[in-house]
Amino acid sequence: MTSTDNPVRLSLVPSSSRQAILERLFERAHIRRQMGMRPLDIQFSYWKRVQRMEVQEFERLLAPLLQDALETIEWPDERGARLFLVKQLHDQAAVRLKQSYGLHDPRSKPPDFEHMLCGLAPGKVICMAEYKGRHTTTLS
User: Fold this and answer.
1) 2 in a structural domain
2) Cα dihedral across residues 91, 93, 96, 98: positive or negative
3) What are 73-114's pLDDT values in tens digits?
4) Backbone φ and ψ of 128, nearest 5°
5) β strands within 65-120, DSSP E
């Protein structure tokens, strides 16, 4: 097996943060046990918290690359074309991040490109906001 078959995955969460998460979970599990409550699934809770922190750090590193790409483009008029363009630019930025630092996208599902479009290109596009089941158009 070559090194490209099973790439080493760098962690975006430092070991000190991982240790703090685990210690806090052990404390919570101990308290729950003393109170007679349902036991805490430490392994699952730990994995979810670390994954959430990895995604936040990945998005923090990805944002400047994506922001630079979004500032230099001409926005199409159609909403679907805008979303497709944001997806392409996101994928290109993720590839650059992977090539530069060896970081893989830790997300298990695709990001919300509508939210990303509104957050990274405010004032340039009209975003759809969902409020109590109704779609209303707001200018970001």
Assistant:
1) no
2) negative
3) 887 878 788 888 889 989 999 999 888 888 888 888 888 888
4) -95, 125
5) none
The amino acid sitting at 125 is V
Q: How many domains does the chain have?
A: 1
Contact between 73 and 88 under an 8 Å Cβ cutoff? The reply is no
The amino acid present at 116, given as its one-letter code, is: M
Whether 8 is in a domain gets the answer: no
Task: Name residue 139's beta-bridge partners.
Answer: 126
> What are the residue ranges in the chain where pLDDT is below 50?
1-8, 130-140
Return the sign of the alpha-carbon dihedral for residues 85, 80, 118, 52: negative
Q: Which domain holds residue 101?
A: 15-139
State the amino acid at position 53 in one-letter form. Answer: M
pLDDT at 8: 46
Please indicate, yes or no, if residue 36 is contained in any of the structural domains. yes
Amino acid occupying residue 19:
Q
In a domain, residue 84? The reply is: yes
Give the phi and the psi of residue 20 in degrees, each rounded to 5: -65, -40
